[in-house]
Amino acid sequence: MKRIGVADLLDMALTDDQLAQKVEIVAEIPSIGGTCMDTRGNIYLADAENSQITVLSPSGKRATLVQDHRLISPDALFIDRNRRLYVPCPQLQKLAFLNDGRNEVQAPFLVFSIPLPDSLDGIPLGTGVEG
Predict the structure, then answer these.
(1) Which of 4, 33, 43, 46 is the most exposed place for a label (fewest CB within 10 A)?
(2) pLDDT tens sequence for the chain (131 residues)
(3) How far apart (Å, rounded) are the C-alpha atoms in residues 127 and 80?
(4) C-alpha–C-alpha distance, residues 35 and 23, integer Å
(5) For residue 4, what are the domain limits?
(6) 110 and 49 in one domain?
(7) Residues 120 and 68 both lie in one domain
(8) Cross-sheet strand order for the sheet of 52-56
């Protein structure tokens, strides 16, 4: 995962090479199906390879919120104002073009609703970002 400052992106005086130098690596992460952010700046990562949701704090600390074999292709995460994380699981990795020509998608298509704790392994968790 990489980041760059908005001010750098808006600085028209920077050359492409100079702009590239402003990009910094935040964390090495697996293939991600979806992300969302809370009001404390934590990034929630839908780890499709390991059927889990991890939290990456602004300081770089990472913790696993949930791991479950039913999290098949977790994607499009969002947090509501009641501090529930919603995780749709569209089973993309079971589609024929991603599964050696075999379509193994099965209904129902699950959407998990996970109540967020106040903190996770010492990482304070926030609410959904609105606006």
Answers:
(1) 4
(2) 899 999 999 999 999 999 999 999 988 888 888 999 999 999 999 998 899 999 999 999 999 999 999 999 999 999 999 999 999 988 878 878 888 999 888 989 899 999 999 999 999 999 999 87
(3) 7
(4) 20
(5) 1-28
(6) yes
(7) yes
(8) 32-37, 43-47, 52-56, 62-67
Q: Does residue 118 share a domain with residue 73?
A: yes
The backbone torsions φ and ψ at residue 18, rounded to the nearest 5 degrees and listed phi first, read -65, -40
Q: How far apart are CA 103 and CA 81, in angstroms?
A: 36
11: left (phi over 0), alpha (psi -120 to 50) or beta: beta
> Could you tell me if 55 and 5 lie in one domain?
no
Q: Say if residue 19 is in the same domain as residue 37.
A: no
CA gap 66, 69 in Å, rounded: 10
Question: 104 near 56, Cβ under 8 Å?
Answer: no
Q: Three-state SS for 82?
A: coil
E strand spans, the chain? 2-3, 24-25, 32-37, 43-47, 52-56, 62-67, 78-79, 84-89, 110-115, 119-120, 123-124
